[in-house]
C-alpha cells in the first residue's frame, strides 16, 4: 500500500510517494518537473517507483495541464482524486465567499499548517505565506477558521511585468540591499520588500483581529529566497502541501480520523 501526493502549480509539478495515506506516513520518493516536462513522468521518474494504491492531488494550472497529468497517471491502475476547496475539511473552516473558488493549493497548504500547529499543541492564529509563481498570504484564526488572504505576483512575474512595461528595465537579478544603488539590486530588493511588507501587514491585521501574536509559516518553491528578508519571525516548511494532502488522505482513505 502506498500513496502518491501531487501538487501542480503554475510553474512546476511536485510529487511525493509515501508508504501509506496517513499523517505519520514515511516518505519513499519525491521529485519535481517543470510543467513543460510533464510528458516525461510515466517513462521517467514514475517508471522507477512502486505503483501507488491511492493518488491525491491539487492542481491550479488549469484543465489542459490536469489532463496531461492524468495521462501520465494511466501508467498505473489507479483513479486519482483531486482536492476541491470546500466549506470545511480536516479541521479547517473556509471563510471564502465562494469556498470552491479558493485555489486548492492554498486550501491544502492551510490544512497542512493547521495540522502542524495542532500536532505541537499550539492554538495560535496563523499567517501562511506561499511563495510560488504567485504569492499568497493567508490568515487563519486560533479556532481554525480561514479568515481571508491576499494574492500578489511572485518574483518572476513582478520582474517580467516591469521589463515588459518599461523601456529601461532589462537587467539580471541582483541582490537584496537595504539601500539599492543599481538597477538590478533595486528590482530584486523591490520584489522582496513587496512580499515581506505584505506578510508584515497581514500579521498586523491578524494580531489586531485576534489579540494574539500569530505564528508565521512559509512554504513554496521560492520560500528559501524570501526567508532571509522576512521582517517577521517565520518558519520555512517545504513540505506543507504534502502534509496537507496526507491529512486529507488520512481522513478520506485512512482508518482513523484525525483532530
Ligand atoms: N530551482 C528552481 N527551479 C525553479 N524555480 C525555482 C527554483 N528555485 C526557486 N524557484 C522559484 O520558485 C517558483 C516555483 O515555485 P513552485 O512552488 O514550484 O511554484 P508553483 O507551485 O507556482 O509551480 C519559481 O517561480 C521560481 O521563482
Ligand atoms: C493564487 C494561485 C494563482 C497561486 O498559484 P501558484 O503560485 O501556486 O501557482 C492559485 O491558488 C489560484 O489560481 N487560485 C484561484 C483563485 C483564488 O484562490 O482566489
Ligand atoms: K503552489
From TrEMBL:
It catalyses: (R)-pantothenate + ATP = (R)-4'-phosphopantothenate + ADP + H(+). It is an enzyme of class 2 (transferase). Substrate binds at residues 96, 103-106, 183. The keyword NAD does not apply. GO terms for molecular function: ATP binding; pantothenate kinase activity. Its cofactor is NH4(+); K(+). It is found in: Cytoplasm. Pathway: Cofactor biosynthesis; coenzyme A biosynthesis; CoA from (R)-pantothenate: step 1/5. GO terms for cellular component: cytoplasm. A monovalent cation. Ammonium or potassium. The active site is at residue 105. Its EC number is 2.7.1.33. GO terms for biological process: coenzyme A biosynthetic process. Keywords: ATP-binding, Coenzyme A biosynthesis, Cytoplasm, Kinase, Nucleotide-binding, Potassium, Transferase. The keyword Glycoprotein does not apply. InterPro entries: ATPase_NBD, Type_III_PanK. ATP binds at residues 7-14, 133. Homodimer. NCBIfam families: baf. Catalyzes the phosphorylation of pantothenate (Pan), the first step in CoA biosynthesis. Belongs to the type III pantothenate kinase family. This is Type III pantothenate kinase. It comes from Malikia granosa.
